[in-house]
Amino acid sequence: MSALRHGKYPFILTFLIPPVGIYALYMLSPYVQAIYISLTEWSGLSANQKFIGFDNYVEMWNDDQLRTALRNNLILLVVVPVLTLVLGLFFASMLNVGGRGRSQAITGVRGSSIYKVVYFFPQVLPHAIVAIMFAYVFAPSNAGGILNNILEAIGLGSLTQLWLGEPKYLIWIVVLVMTWAFVGFYVVLFSAAMQSIPRDIYEAALLDGSSRLTTFRKVTLPLVWDTVQVGWVYMAIQAMDGFAIVHIMLGVNGGVQGAGDVLGVAIYRAAFADYDFGYAAAIGVLMLALTMTIVVLFMRVLRRERVELA
Amino acid sequence: MATVTYDKASRIYPGQDNPAVDSLDLTIEDGEFLVLVGPSGCGKSTSLRMLAGLEEVDQGSIRIGERDVTHMPPKDRDIAMVFQNYALYPHMSVSDNMGFALKIAGTPKDEIRRRVADAAKLLDLEEYLDRKPKALSGGQRQRVAMGRAIVREPQVFLMDEPLSNLDAKLRVSTRTQIASLQRRLGITTVYVTHDQIEAMTMGDRVAVLKDGLLQQVDTPLGLFDKPQNVFVAGFIGSPAMNIATFDLVDGNATLGESSVPVPPAVSAAVKEEGSDTVTLGFRPEALEPVSSESEGGIPIVVDVIEELGADAFVYGQPAGPTSELQSDRMRSETVIARVEPRNVPAKGAKVNFRVRPGNEHFFSVKTGARIEA
Q1: pTM, full prediction
Q2: What is the CA radius of gyration of chain A?
Q3: Do B104 and A208 touch (CB under 8 A)?
Q4: CB B242 within 8 A of CB B286
Q5: Whole-angstrom distance, CA of residue B246 vs CA of residue B234
Q6: Cα–Cα distance measured from residue B8 to residue B22, given in angstroms and rounded to the nearest whole number
Q7: ω before B220 within 30° of 0 (cis)?
Q8: Residue B118 pLDDT exceeds 90
Q9: β-pairing, B205-210 with B33-37?
Q10: What is the DSSP letter of B345?
Q11: A191 within 8 A of A116, measured Cβ to Cβ
């Protein structure tokens, strides 16, 4: 025992140093570098890097396009998680406990095993493909726009729009696409959480006269709340991004009049279109600060007593 | 208050040939405590869940009182159930757990509080009303589950092995508590257990099931004294009945050296079914030691002695020249005999037992059914 203990710390350190070192080198140091770069004026192409203090941050404060991006990010941050989680919970509960089967009192709706697979499809598609697909969905009729052509085919031709040409629709289209792309994952996540609730609790609720809605509100939701919380944080972080979908669907300028812009695209634009790496890094630091704040806030607000499933 | 009637009720699980419950015919009287007992997989829980509405009834019907509930959703059946794992809502306090059904039914808050308080008093749970289930012991959780059922004031209580998660000592005391509570409330109760001692001690009547078929329904003593077939004989009673196949020779059931006189009615019945063997059962209590010279004794080599203080049981193997034949014909591995607790034979000793006259149970070798003497 003592021989073991003697060599304990060197032993542990040999295992600890490589991963911590790699983590520090590749994960932490870029943050530090980015913060430094944000305090400089740098094209990213030359060795000519000039320290300018907080000038980039002052510039950000006066940048109207950045305000649009920030506002859009906040819309994504609030609307996408709410939509995704509500839909995810609804579908998951229908798939797992919504049905009233012949063979079991508590089961999913008919065909739920098929739906589970179908809902997961969007999750296996890369966001690039999702964005290209939806760019076609919302394209003008003569460019093969699927939505417009469907509207015309069912006699609702008056509702056709140049969807991607109307600034006020852009961010809501992004909301829709992101929700579509993410909801399947949350269906699967919440399904797993609901599967772990003992069946007899649902049966007890059934005997207590609880309707589907009451069972969902009073039994299912409180018992999967931990998972919802984790899902919410994760979804909020993903909603802060939205880069791939906006960039591919709306272009590097964030669509018509930049109305669909998000911070991720603004960073990309600053770095690779304007060659202003300092400014891009400053936006990145802003995003980092926002994300951290949101995560901490969510963790605080959503914290509840843990429930143990018997 | 209501009667419960199973009318040829069957449950066949999809993809299975044999019914889990096969045309169960059973009437439970108003206020009666009926126990469904049987080995695992016998269909007792399924029968209960059919009554609860948690399992479909594939054939036949179930009535509570005059109401046909066969295809009625569980919430309209006016029943309350105590689950094996209690199925308490983990995120609700004890009082919320107990009042959940009333709250859903839209009962006024005052009345919910009063009824929960009454039940808590009855079950000695008053000081735990604000706790969550995880902060309760197993016995307390069990009482909360009982309370949740009592608060409902249903027509029928259903209990699915509610004691199986308690330790042995608590199980015994809770057993009597549940039985006395049920007598006091007078609510018709169907209770499922695999433990025949629970069945015998709690039930007004006991229904024994095996392979989805009802074997016998009777009072505990009725089952003990007159088991209707070999299965019930072997299942009811602890230690189990000694059962073996005997040859019928000249009005005596003989097996090797041992022989037991057979009443003429039994001999006649065995002859009638064209058989020359009979299944004979005798309880450990029905054996008494006799001197080694006496006729018809069953010599036994003592393997193990269980001394329980009030009782002592001898577990042994047949001895004597025909022991091999006797062992082959026995249903169990050992012969069990009750002996005087203050006068037990030594291990390895050879003791000669005989069956006290009138304590034999005869069963048909072909059908397993009881042959009445």
Answers
A1: 0.80
A2: 25
A3: yes
A4: no
A5: 16
A6: 8
A7: no
A8: yes
A9: parallel
A10: P
A11: yes
At B207, the amino acid letter reads A
Helices A127-137 and A167-195 cross at an angle (nearest 10°) of 130
Q: Are A164 and A171 in contact (CB under 8 A)?
A: no
Q: Who among A105, A204, A222 is closest to B83 (CB)? A: A204
Residue B312 to residues A63, B238, B306, B341, Cα–Cα distance (Å): 95, 12, 5, 5
CA distance B257 to chain A (A): 55
State the pLDDT at residue B278: 92
Whether the CB of A149 is below 8 Å from some CB of chain B: the reply is: no
Angle of helix A243-250 relative to helix A167-195, nearest 10 degrees?
140
Q: At residue A13, what are phi and psi to the nearest 5 degrees?
A: -60, -35
For residue B35, what is the enclosing H or E element? strand B33-37
**Domains located in chain A, CATH noted:** 60-302 (1.10.3720.10)
B66 contact partners, CB below 8 Å, separation of at least 6: none
Give chain B positions within 8 Å (CB) of A204.
81, 83, 87-89, 148
Per-residue tokens: B128: 């735990």
Chain B contacts in chain A segment 21-50 (CB below 8 A)? none
| Chains A, B: CB pairs < 8 Å | 82
Q: Token digits for A98?
A: 């919504």
Confidence of residue A159 (pLDDT cuts 50, 70, 90): confident
For chain B, which domains are there? 4-234 (3.40.50.300), 242-371 (2.40.50.140)
Q: With an 8 Å Cβ cutoff, is A210 touching chain B?
A: yes
The half-sphere exposure of B323 on its side-chain side, counting CA atoms within 13 A, is 14
Amino acid identity at B160:
D
Nearest CA among B91, B148, B90 for reference residue B122: B148
**Three-state SS for A276?**
coil
Q: Which residues make Cβ contacts (< 8 Å) with residue B41, sequence separation at least 6?
A: B211
Per-residue model confidence as pLDDT tens digits over A188-241: 899 989 989 988 899 999 899 888 889 899 999 999 988 998 888 888 888 888
Paired sense of beta strands B79-82 and B156-160, if any: parallel
| B100/A309 touch (CB, cutoff 8 Å), yes or no | no
* Confidence bin at A100 (pLDDT 50/70/90): low
- Say if residues B37 and B206 touch (Cβ distance below 8 Å): yes
Is the Cα dihedral A133, A138, A144, A149 positive or negative?
Answer: positive
Q: Within 10 Å of residue B287's Cβ, how many Cβ atoms?
A: 23
Tokens matching residue B78: 């006016």
Residues 6+ apart with CB under 8 A from B188: B1, B2, B3, B4, B28, B29, B30, B31, B32, B155, B156, B157
> Choosing among B91, B104, B157, which should be mutated to test the A contact, i.e. which has the most A CBs within 10 A?
B91
Taken in order B51, B57, B62, B67, is the CA torsion positive or negative? positive
Closest CB from B53, B56, B90 relative to A309: B90
Distance CA B61, CA B50 (A): 10
Closest by CA to A175, choosing from A138, A227, A148, is: A138
